[in-house]
Amino acid sequence: MSIPAYKSDNAPTNWLRDSDFKQMVEDLQVMVCVYDINGFIYLNPAAKNVTGYSLEEILHRKFWELVHPEDRDWIQTRGTARLRGEKVPSTREFRILKKNGEVMWINVFYLITTWSGRNVNILGFIDITENKRLNEELQASRSELEARVEQRTGELNRTNKELRILNQNLNNILNNISDGVATVNDSGDVEWLNPFFKRLSEQAASEIKSILKNMILNEPGGSLRRMFTEKKSFKDEEMILQASEGSLSLLVSGTPILNEGGDVHNAVIILRPMKDVHRLIQRFSGYRASFCFENIVSSDPILATLIDNAKHTALTDSNVVIEGESGTGKELFAQAIHNYSSRSGGPFIAINCGATPRELIASELFGYAEGAFTGAKKNGNPGKFELASGGTLFLDEIGDMPLEQQCSLLRVLQEKKITRIGGCQAIPTDVRIICATNKDLYQEMKKGSFRNDLYYRLNVINVKIPPLRERRTDIMLLFNHFMKTSENRAGKTGIRVSSRARECLMHYDWPGNVRELQNVVERLVNMTSGTTVEPDLLPQEIRMSFQAEQAPLPDTGVPEQTDHLQKLKTERNAFRRKSEEEQLKRIMDLLAVNRWNINKAAKELGISRTTLYKKIKRAGIH
């Protein structure tokens, strides 16, 4: 079929001849078709080859019948409008179905003209299926890439957030840790310090940097140098750094930092003050003082004065000697002084100089270095002086300390430094000494069993605790206090003491003092089945002592009982002779405190006025 000449409003007036135009359309590689309202009227060879249709197969078929069903409606609407002469877009991408059923994307452009008095569409289209596929794949790749980028960005953001939090937490830890943390390089330079060093003086911090650098560069066998040369970490090695402001005892650990090549150019050093280590040991080892002055139960005015003086003593750092019989509460006073002092936050460490073997007391007090003797612990062991640094060292039974150790103790008190057994380094100590003894240290010094220079070094402040027999008003006060405590512990209540039993308790001299009284109360609570304590429940020595003072027991004809009673009388007379001077001093003190008011003094002594007059007369006091 030939293509006639056509006329268009936009076409030039001189048209090509029919044969020339036809040949041009036939040779085009662009697919061309012509259709009107009734259907197709022309296909060029390119359109036939690509679609697979011949003109005869689609002649008079509507164009939109070849369009993909999903695009058919809007193509039909737009094509019909175009044939009616309405203005619609001239190009569009859509899908058609080839003869073999394949879907082909085409990009079309239209030209409307008149032919034999009717409107026709000349449609040119090109196959863009491959372009569409590539675009779709590109879009899919772009979408996948965008999704992966978004996912990776999210992961990076989360990782960065975690790193920021980790870095912030690490900085908080390093800035708030009580230990010193420093990073150093293989040239010995300190590159970073945490605020631990800021708590030191600027000069001390500078000296520590210089000491660390010297140890890294000039001590080949030292742990700090080997950390770089042998890539070896070390942990908890004790070092004493000598600074101009004093010695600093530290527990040092170091870890090398390996780079990607496995070389070490930097390291982290952790420095922990030994006093902090000791404080931890004390916390978990029970080296704490439990008692305060408020725990001392007494109504005795002499003891009240003694407590006031002890409180003033606590506010100083002077050495204290506490004297008193066994069981009077010497350690209780020592703990109270410690807890009332500025050292209350530090340790309270006690050692019994009389119970510790002679050959071990030096190592207990001063510690020992590694290899000091057979069986010595690896890295040595600190002594009580080191552990008590910043607090109080309580030397109980100081009068029983061997003379050779008294000399060592004196040297430590003078120089305020100790040297471990087998060691060579002088370790500074910051310790307050409180001693206790049931001996008369002055008389021991006179006899030569206690060094006079140590006596005068220790006996700066002397506290003498009166025995319980000299403060009889405290007997029932303490008895009731211990009774309440023991009742609570045993789950009992309402135990009372008969008047006869009370007289027995008040007339007993209590050679074991408060400790003996406490033991008697605990025994009564455990042994009493009723609610009243009668004399027969009291220990035999308390009953016999009271009976001997009141009247002799009737002869039962049993020799053993008579001999036992005689023995008790002899012991009581010995107690009386021993305490006669102490009782006289006690009476004089009370009379002086009460301005010779006999009534008050007798009441505080727990005796009648007549008895007090007799004692005064017998003592020859006017």
Description:
The N terminus is likely disordered. This protein has 22 helices and 19 strands. The strands form five sheets. The protein has a five-stranded antiparallel β-sheet with strand order 2-1-5-4-3, sandwiched between helices. The protein has a five-stranded antiparallel β-sheet with strand order 7-6-10-9-8. By secondary structure, it is α/β, with parallel strands linked by helices. It has four domains: 110 residues, Beta-Lactamase; 102 residues, PAS domain (Beta-Lactamase, 2-Layer Sandwich), CATH 3.30.450; 180 residues, Rossmann fold (3-Layer(aba) Sandwich), CATH 3.40.50; 150 residues, Helicase, Ruva Protein, domain 3 (Orthogonal Bundle), CATH 1.10.8.60. Strand 14 and strand 15 form a beta hairpin. The chain is elongated and about 165 Å long.
Give a quick rundown of the structure.
The protein is α/β, with parallel strands linked by helices.
* Overall outline: elongated
CATH architecture of the largest domain: 3-Layer(aba) Sandwich
- Characterize the biggest β-sheet: 5 strands, antiparallel
| Mean of residue pLDDT values | 81
Chain oligomer state: single chain
Helix-strand category: alpha/beta
Number of strands: 19
CATH topology of the largest domain: Rossmann fold
Task: Give the DSSP E fraction (strand runs of 2 or more residues).
Answer: 15-25%
Number of helices: 22
CATH top level class name of the largest domain: Alpha Beta
What is the CA-atom radius of gyration, in angstroms? 54 Å
Number of domains: 4
Cα distance spanning the termini: 166 Å
Biggest β-sheet: strands ordered side by side in the sheet? 2-1-5-4-3
CATH superfamily of the largest domain: P-loop containing nucleotide triphosphate hydrolases
* Regions with little confidence, pLDDT below 50 for 5+ residues: 1-17, 551-561
User: What is the share of helical residues?
Assistant: 40-55%
